[in-house]
Input
Amino acid sequence: MVGVLTASERVQAAEQVTAELDSALRAVGVTLPSLCVDPVSAASTFMAPLVELGRCNVETARRLAEVLAEYAQGAAYGHDGHGPEGRQR
Output
């Protein structure tokens, strides 16, 4: 059984996932300049820390939407290029 995380461990986990998200986004050409762990939720003893995605300019939002749409289209067809009915792209 996994024990309850301490406040420090919860913040550390949130910082880790924030870094992973930042790295993954940068790998596809998206940088969220305000990406961080929300300091208010990180100080809470009652809730898990939240990851603040922050604000971004229109061009960054557009790039993020493009990357997600490309991923969704690829996920619908799978890695072999075939869709759910066996049709190829």
